[in-house]
Write a structure and sequence with these properties.
CATH architecture of the largest domain: 3-Layer(aba) Sandwich
Number of helices: 11
Number of strands: 7
Strand content: 5-15%
Largest sheet: 7 strands, mixed
Order of helices and strands: HHHHEHEEHEHEHEEHHH
Radius of gyration: 28 Å
Shape: globular
Distance between the termini: 73 Å
Number of domains: 3
Oligomer: single chain
CATH class of the largest domain: Alpha Beta
Strand order of the largest sheet: 3-2-1-4-5-7-6
Structural class: alpha/beta
Length: about 300
């Protein structure tokens, strides 16, 4: 067995010591170090506050504050939350301007790791770096509604979400909405900005009254700006839902069945006794009929 002496180099001593440590001990030490590093990492991540403004990192919700947009903060938050929660595969925006809404939508899509956005505007003044759109954006520099067929081709299928924020004129909004209707998927949502503008509101109301396929979801954002123009109010969101067949409600199965199929899991059967099953209630208060049947309790 080698012995350390003054003439032996320090690295030689370390190598010699490593050589005499049994392999199982080395493996145990390495495993312990990895476990310690993992535990420290978990604790650090829980204690650290995420940087909401780093658009290349998760939780990039800070984009709602930094995006160059004329939308108010409640509108920005609603737009980000809706896209992130609804998770559309294909989205369209009419009216790009500086790219603020594009940044909000594409960062919400990036957060859920799916979806693309097509923007239509004849003269955009993009102020958002393309890297901040995460490769999820296509810009068509043509006017609407002429560019709608090209935008559909770029999307590769019908849209599940549309933001109409172009010219706020009755004739224009009416033409934009009529042009996108044939290119919507069943259950798609259409969001109008500056919906308190009477021209926008009238075009939307008439479209809903004339179509059995459009369901009016009202004004989810009601912050009005009556001072931008002495003759016309601005701001506000109006939301519509498109149904391929006239329907007043959305069956949960239509949404969940594809998700179960994607995960290759069987959907739980909708037996009557299962409708009163709630995980918290059955644990904290008492088992429901389904739980009692599963555990064969009286």
């Amino acid at each position: 067995m080698p012995r350390y002496n003054a003439a032996m180099p320090a690295n030689g001593a370390i190598s010699s010591l490593k050589a005499i440590v049994p392999a199982p001990v080395k493996s145990s030490l390495r495993g312990a170090r990895r476990a310690l590093r993992d535990r420290i990492g978990i604790i650090s991540n829980r204690l650290a506050r995420p940087n909401l403004y780093r658009l290349n990192k998760p939780e990039r919700v800070g984009v709602v504050y930094s995006a160059p947009s004329d939308m108010r903060i409640d509108e920005r938050l609603f737009l980000y939350a809706m896209v992130r929660g609804f998770r559309p595969q294909r989205a369209l925006e009419i009216g790009v301007l500086r790219g603020g809404s594009a940044a909000i939508i594409t960062n919400a899509l990036e957060e859920v790791r799916r979806g693309t956005l097509v923007g239509v505007d004849p003269e955009p003044a993009m102020a958002v770096p393309w890297r901040d759109l995460h490769g999820r954006y296509t810009l068509i520099r043509k006017p609407s509604p002429d560019a709608i067929p090209e935008a559909r081709d770029a999307a590769g299928g019908p849209w599940e979400f549309v933001l109409i924020d172009g010219l706020h004129r009755y004739d224009q909004v009416r033409a934009d909405l009529a042009a996108v209707l044939p290119h919507l998927s069943d259950g798609a949502y259409i969001l109008f900005h500056d919906a308190f503008h009477y021209g926008v509101a009238t075009a939307v109301r008439e479209a809903v009254e004339a179509s059995e396929n459009l369901i009016d979801c009202g004004y989810p954002c009601r912050t009005v700006n009556p001072w931008a123009d002495a003759t016309m109010p601005y701001n506000g969101f109006r939301l519509l839902r498109y149904a391929a067949t006239p329907a007043r409600s959305v069956d949960v199965e239509r949404i969940l069945d594809p998700l179960y199929e994607m995960e290759r899991r069987a959907r739980p059967p909708l037996r009557r006794e299962a409708l009163n099953h709630d995980l918290w209630y059955c644990r904290a208060v008492g088992p429901c009929e389904q739980c009692r049947a599963q555990h064969k309790q009286p």
